[in-house]
Amino acid sequence: MLEEKIREILDSHARLATPAAALADDDDLYAAGMSSQASVNVMLALEDTFDIEFPDYMLRRSVFESLGAIRSAVSELQSGAAV
Predict the structure, then answer these.
(1) Domain housing 32
(2) Of 7, 17, 55, 60, which sees the most CB atoms within 10 A?
(3) Residue 71: which CATH number?
(4) For the segment 61-81, what is each residue's pLDDT rounded down to a tens digit?
């Protein structure tokens, strides 16, 4: 469910050259066509969809670099482990 929602958000907001369904967990989203502006749109959509807020220390390229990194960050925020 979490991964499906993230893939939907990527398809809607990341402006990827490839459908998110075709991407592996560790594929570089920036290499797949996501710009820094699109990553902000992805972040905002993630916050709205999952009712979370990315803290300043998570506002790094590496957090949004791959599906796996995004899933890990969202899971951390949902669990309340992020400070």
Answers:
(1) 2-79
(2) 7
(3) 1.10.1200.10
(4) 999 999 999 999 999 999 986
